[in-house]
């Protein structure tokens, strides 16, 4: 998977200690930049009758925060605006002669 810089509303990140964060009400007012590094699914979501899909986000607040510096947030509903502003870089090697 490629790495993506994303913007997010960090209000629920401030109290995150682990698991998959799926806030039902979260503003999409973007106020924090993070790195999207992967995805997965875990836990049980009674509403969906299956596992919860999530994004894995690396934060800049250090390894003592969250799950060793990482945050899992629900994937697929633009929770806290995580899908709103995404960017990546494509590197191209050129020859100089």
TrEMBL record:
<dbReference type="Pfam" id="PF00112">
    <property type="entry name" value="Peptidase_C1"/>
</dbReference>
<dbReference type="InterPro" id="IPR025660">
    <property type="entry name" value="Pept_his_AS"/>
</dbReference>
<keyword id="KW-1015">Disulfide bond</keyword>
<keyword id="KW-0645">Protease</keyword>
<protein>
    <submittedName>
        <fullName>CYSTEINE PROTEASE FAMILY C1-RELATED</fullName>
    </submittedName>
</protein>
<dbReference type="InterPro" id="IPR013128">
    <property type="entry name" value="Peptidase_C1A"/>
</dbReference>
<dbReference type="InterPro" id="IPR000668">
    <property type="entry name" value="Peptidase_C1A_C"/>
</dbReference>
<feature type="domain" description="Peptidase C1A papain C-terminal">
    <location>
        <begin position="5"/>
        <end position="88"/>
    </location>
</feature>
<dbReference type="InterPro" id="IPR038765">
    <property type="entry name" value="Papain-like_cys_pep_sf"/>
</dbReference>
<keyword id="KW-0788">Thiol protease</keyword>
<dbReference type="InterPro" id="IPR025661">
    <property type="entry name" value="Pept_asp_AS"/>
</dbReference>
<dbReference type="GO" id="GO:0008234">
    <property type="term" value="F:cysteine-type peptidase activity"/>
</dbReference>
<comment type="similarity">
    <text>Belongs to the peptidase C1 family.</text>
</comment>
<keyword id="KW-0378">Hydrolase</keyword>
<dbReference type="GO" id="GO:0006508">
    <property type="term" value="P:proteolysis"/>
</dbReference>
């Amino acid at each position: 998977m490629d790495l993506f810089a994303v913007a997010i509303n960090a209000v629920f990140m401030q109290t995150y200690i682990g698991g998959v964060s799926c806030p039902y009400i979260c503003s999409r007012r973007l106020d924090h930049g993070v790195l999207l590094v992967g995805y997965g699914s875990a836990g049980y979501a009674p509403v969906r009758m299956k596992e919860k899909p999530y994004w894995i986000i690396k934060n800049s607040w250090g390894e003592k925060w969250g799950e060793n510096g990482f945050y899992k947030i629900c994937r697929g509903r633009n929770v806290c605006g995580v899908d709103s502003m995404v960017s990546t870089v494509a590197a191209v090697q050129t020859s100089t002669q």
